[in-house]
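INFO batch 0412 | record 1 of 1 | parsing
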Amino acid sequence: MAKVQLTIDGRTVEAEEGAMLLQVARDAGADIPTLCHNDEVKPYGACRMCMIEVEEHGRTRLVTSCTYPVKEGISVTTRSDRIFRNRKMIVELLLARCYKVPEIRAMAADYGIDVENSRFQVREDTCILCGLCVRVCDEVVGVHAIGFAGRGPDRVPTPPFKEPSQFCIACGACVYVCPVDAIKMVQTPESRTIKRWQRTLPMKVCKVCGEPFMPEYQIEYFTKRAKVPEDFFEVCPNCR
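INFO prediction complete | emitting tokens
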């Protein structure tokens, strides 16, 4: 693949054409925060925390580094007063929305924000609307069990019509990618529950060790999608 040269924080860097600035800048040693980024899904630019300054053709502007591809000759700045002010405002607004979320409170403290006295109207939501749960369900798992509903401050990730999902396979992918622990999973020897989607499914028990290892509906879905033998999931990965 063709290479391009660009400048990042005063250093000349070579990168593959089409690569996104976020990873290129991080590889060059830049410290860029993110909330909605995950290597397993497509760049989305929802949280805006990865904003940097790009100078191109004599014009400097703020862009989201996770969605901006490298280009020949551009000059990138990852640390400036302008960048800091914009990131700080984003964190302050997130704090007002998710006032009790520990991850957001810690980030706010890092930016010098008074976490106990928000100047905005405070809400006690737990979801920061990063979209990772929706995207991993669509792009990685392929179930499409959840999406977004509502607008503005009332926007939420949810199964269709905000009813208990009949498509969720309780795989837990949404739980693991959530950056603020907004999606809870409860598992017992008999069942696994994804609380936010109101989905409870019985667990499959390994024929060798007798331990539960995966929801039965998830096994049914994976068996059809991967086209593996029907008895492939009779034992857990450890025993297999």
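INFO post-check: Helices lie at 21-27, 81-97, 102-110, 132-141, 173-177, 216-226.
INFO record closed
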